[in-house]
Each structure stands twice: as structure tokens, then as C-alpha cells.
Specification:
The protein is an alpha+beta fold. Helices cover about 50% and strands about 15% of the residues.
Length: about 220
């Protein structure tokens, strides 16, 4: 697969197989970094990487500062066979730049932590407000739903990093479609045999067809005002 384009960076890769540099014929193995020069694989020396140190991903502030201090940006990518995509592993930078960036991070660590905690508290407040509004909208659209079920549905649908409907952009606007999808998902898993059908070998499309009528029977009384 072709590496991703990055107009601001020189892309570097761990050598994932044995080979030779296309420019000087130096042997390469999995302990080497390589880059591309004139569309051909180049070793550390031919690619101009000989004076650089690898800084692995993990410390966003340190990486950002090292990048800002570096005259050129070197991004290390590795192909993930499981995810079928290139993923960032870190950057390359001169050792003295990494040390300067580290010292700057240590100097304002307390300030950054205070800002981080304030941001986390602000996001938590926003998430709580969205969850409450989502639950209220469920109750508005399904006035006869069982008492308290709106909070159960909203909590599940709006869980952070879940990828569920409550986290989608249109759900943030409380679009009726997002509410209907969340309610139907709840009924599907809690009031039908959907999960049992999947466990028994049915595919999702087949299982949804089989329980469609049951969902309609369950949801109809919830709509009654």
C-alpha cells in the first residue's frame, strides 16, 4: 500500500524486510530506518537521517515542541497489517532539540496540567448536559416509554469513544433521527431475540428482518401521548 502523503514532512519507515539501499547498496535489515529519495529506498546516510534520534509517540507536548524546534519534520510510519494502514510511530529529530523540548515541557508542566484538568472538567460538563438533553428528547418523542428508560438509552448511546449514535454530529443537535435510532437499538437488544439470533449464527441483516415486527410492536405503545 502506498504511504500517505504529507506535504510538511519527510516520511521515514522502519525497514520491515532485508534489502539494500538503492543509492549506495548498503545492506538493510529490520533494525534500520529508511526513507525515499528520488522515489527509491534510501538508507540513513543517503536519506540524511544520520544525525537524528528517534522520539517515539506518546508524549504529545514533547513531540509538538520537538517538531516546532526542528528545521525539518521527519515522521516515522509503520504499516499495520491488521488495520491495513500506515500508523505514526514517532518522529526523528536531533538529540539536542529533543532535550530542549523536554526541558521546556518540564518547565511548564504544572501550567499544562492545570489547563488539561480544566479542559477535562469542561468536557465532562458538556457531556453531562448533552446526555440530559438527549434523555429529555427521548421522553418528548416517546412520552409513554417505561419510566427511566430514557436515561438508560441516553447513557448507552452517548458513551464517549463508543462510536454510537449519540456521539454523532447530528445527535449533538438532537435530530429526531438520532433519537429514533438510539431507541430502536435499545429495543433491539433488550426486547427482542436479536442477540440470540446472532449467537446462533444468523447474520445481522437476517436477524434484523426477523425481529423487525417485534420492534414495531414494542415501540408503538411508547409513542402514545
Amino acid at each position: 500500500m502506498k504511504p500517505p502523503a504529507d506535504s510538511d514532512a519527510i516520511l521515514v519507515f522502519p525497514s520491515q524486510c532485508e534489502g539494500v539501499c538503492a543509492h549506495c547498496s548498503a545492506p538493510l535489515d529490520q533494525s534500520h530506518f529508511v526513507t525515499f529519495k528520488n522515489d527509491a529506498i534510501a538508507c540513513v546516510d543517503c536519506g540524511g537521517l544520520e544525525n537524528l534520534t528517534f522520539l517515539p509517540s506518546g508524549n504529545t507536548a514533547l513531540t509538538r515542541r520537538a517538531n516546532a524546534l526542528s528545521p525539518l519534520k521527519y515522521v516515522v510510519l509503520k504499516f499495520s497489517r491488521a488495520r491495513k494502514r500506515y500508523e505514526r510511530q514517532g518522529i526523528l529529530a536531533r538529540q539536542e532539540i529533543i532535550e530542549q523540548a523536554r526541558q521546556e515541557c518540564e518547565a511548564d508542566e504544572a501550567t499544562r496540567e492545570t489547563k488539561r484538568l480544566a479542559s477535562a472538567a469542561r468536557r465532562a460538563k458538556q457531556d453531562a448536559a448533552h446526555l440530559a438533553a438527549f434523555a429529555a428528547k427521548i421522553r418528548e418523542l416517546y412520552p409513554s416509554a417505561p419510566r427511566g428508560v430514557e436515561h438508560e438509552i441516553a447513557t448507552h448511546a452517548c458513551r464517549k469513544h463508543s462510536g454510537r449514535v449519540g456521539r454523532a454530529a447530528f445527535a449533538k443537535e438532537l435530530a429526531p433521527e438520532s433519537i429514533h435510532l438510539a431507541v430502536r437499538a435499545h429495543i433491539r437488544h433488550h426486547h427482542t431475540s436479536y442477540d440470540c439470533l446472532l449467537s446462533g449464527g444468523a447474520d445481522r441483516t437476517e436477524a434484523r428482518v426477523l425481529i423487525a415486527a417485534h420492534i414495531e410492536e414494542t415501540i408503538r405503545p411508547w409513542l402514545a401521548g
